[in-house]
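>> received
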Amino acid sequence: MLREKLRNHHLILASGSPRRQDLFNQLDVPFTIQVKKVHEIYPDHLKASEITDYLADLKSKPFSNLKNNDLLITSDTIVWFQGKAIGKPKNREDAFYMLKRMSGKVHEVCTSVSIKSLNFQTIFSDKTLVEFEEISEEEIDYYLKKFKPYDKAGSYGIQDWIGLIGVKKITGSYFNVMGLPVHKLYKELLKIAK
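>> returned
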């Protein structure tokens, strides 16, 4: 359905995330992938989705040569826990520490998406609350060895083994936790297609 409505647009997904690419594929719209490196640094005063809004916008800035029918989509996800942003782990020890701290507690996953063309830009966000079961050190060890989640905010993928055994409850969009609030992206793209 969206494919037909967006037939006059060229969608560019600026993300190297296999999960985002897979979710985008499931929308059934043709797109290309272009990734440009940016230093993901943000002002200290920003909180939760203010951070992801800022970074989604920042990731769109290197694309200065958009054409008339281009729609550039950039995105960023963080875990917000105890008043701090938790991004991707620096190493195994960092990942272990993150998961141990979040064990048995609730954290928030914030994702922001920017849709940018030559003439406009819209940025929207979504948040999901995730409650973890108590996860043992042995389980964390096993997860890190087997799945190596070092490219994931908060050191975990909800679709991985740890999501199966460790997530007690989620309030909000499951796909937002995977890194793309697809339901909101779909609605925004429909508005553009009109």
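>> The longest strand covers residues 70-81.
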